[in-house]
Design brief:
alpha+beta; globular; four-stranded mixed β-sheet; 4 strands; 11% strand; single chain
Length: 191
């Protein structure tokens, strides 16, 4: 179950995404007494492979063909495709972690939180970032796992910042003020 930002329940699985980085973190607090790893750093290219794409393509094809109201169906297509990607993405992550579909109810009944590491979070210094991670996971994980998670988050946050700095157009304010070596074009479409 994925829940919204206002929900106060504690997630058993937390996915930490860094939009410009190929790696992401999975914090798996479902198996507290297990020797199973609780902190996973995964590559998106490893998890979202051919099987993921095949499933999304197959379901997308069904979406395009389904329904007796084609225009209404097409208007809602972006939201349905987003839902497919979320569903199959989570399924691929769970399978990568070793959960077999239909074998264990543990993964399918777990609460999932998705944490996009962007904006104000990336503006935190390492010490504040570490404290934020400790607050998020102190009740779910042993202290060593919390520290390991914080180290991974700090490393990937640095990668995210570096990737944002090299993305074309990332310094729009600097371009407008003339403080950047890059250039940009601003225009208004005439109607």
């Amino acid at each position: 179950m994925v829940f919204g930002p206002d929900d106060q329940r504690t997630a058993e699985l937390t996915l930490c995404f860094f939009p410009h980085v190929d790696e992401f973190i999975v914090v798996d607090a479902r198996f507290r007494d297990s020797k199973r790893p609780r902190i996973w750093v995964l590559k998106a290219t490893d998890v979202l492979g051919d099987e993921f794409r095949r499933r999304v393509e197959s379901d997308f094809s069904r979406l395009l063909r389904g329904g007796d109201r084609p225009f209404l169906r097409l208007m809602g297509l972006p939201q349905e495709v987003e839902g497919l990607i979320r569903m199959h993405g989570l399924r691929s992550i769970l399978e990568y972690l070793g959960d077999q579909p239909g074998v264990s109810d543990q993964g399918s009944n777990s609460t999932v939180a998705v944490f996009f590491c962007t904006g104000p979070f990336l503006a935190l210094d390492n010490q504040h970032m570490r404290r934020a991670i400790q607050k998020m996971f102190a009740e779910l994980l042993p202290p060593d796992d919390v520290d390991e998670c914080a180290e991974h988050v700090i490393r990937l946050a640095e990668c995210e910042r570096a990737a944002q700095d090299t993305t074309p157009g990332s310094d729009v304010q600097g371009m407008i003020r003339g403080d950047s070596d890059r250039y940009g074009t601003l225009w208004q479409m005439e109607r």
